[in-house]
């Protein structure tokens, strides 16, 4: 009975944490990082401010939890689309669909840009942002390595550098789209990723079979 009670308690904690992160995502996007308060987030989630502090020590920590949740969804979504559609035309369509569903909205991109500027001016927050960025890169590197292993070839560019290239392309297009949406249709990301991959496939070496 005690074991069952602890298990139920853990599930409740996880549920509360998910609800707080979900409410925080909405409040941060609507109000902006610096204006949004933990009281607002707690109220939006239906909890007290004390419940927020049970799970997160600071507003910065809560914000990065929001970003990690988005990170996991985006990485899995984009690389999943790439794996499921190997043909060039299907690959572009799948990536375009993923970009339409998963790329940050203008409000989310503005929020992320605001937090970056905030972190640059606050060293202790910058350290947390650096750790988050390293974790994101590691996830992209892992998925990039798995994708090229599935293709059975060794890319001409080191996997960590290739992962950074994918990230830079994604962030650059999202940034440009926030200013001029018509210039960055959803399909463009898939077209450019496919162009990069096809170019590297043409100059890559076949991996030895094990």
Report on this model:
- Helix 4 packs parallel to helix 7 and helix 5 crosses helix 9.
- This protein has a two-stranded antiparallel ribbon with strand order 1-2.
- It is elongated and about 55 Å long.
- The chain folds into two domains: 56 residues, Homeodomain-like (Arc Repressor Mutant, subunit A, Orthogonal Bundle); 149 residues, Orthogonal Bundle (Tetracycline Repressor, domain 2), CATH 1.10.357.
- The chain has nine helices and two strands, in the order αααααααβααβ.
- With 210 residues, the protein is mainly α.
Describe the structure using short key phrases.
210 residues; mainly alpha; Arc Repressor Mutant, subunit A; Tetracycline Repressor, domain 2
What is the CATH class of the largest domain?
A: Mainly Alpha
Using only CA atoms, what is the Rg? 20 Å
Please state the average pLDDT score. Answer: 87
Helix-strand pattern: HHHHHHHEHHE
Task: Describe the sheet with the most strands.
Answer: 2 strands, antiparallel
Structural class: mainly alpha
Strand order of the largest sheet: 1-2
Q: Give the termini separation.
A: 49 Å
> Considering DSSP H and I runs of 4 or more, what fraction of the residues is helical?
over 70%
Gross geometry: elongated
User: How big a fraction of the residues is strand?
Assistant: under 5%
Spell out the CATH superfamily of the largest domain.
Tetracycline Repressor, domain 2
CATH topology of the largest domain: Tetracycline Repressor, domain 2
Unreliable stretches covering 5 or more consecutive residues: none
Query: How many domains, in number, for the residues?
Result: 2
Number of helices: 9
Named at the architecture level, the CATH assignment of the largest domain is Orthogonal Bundle
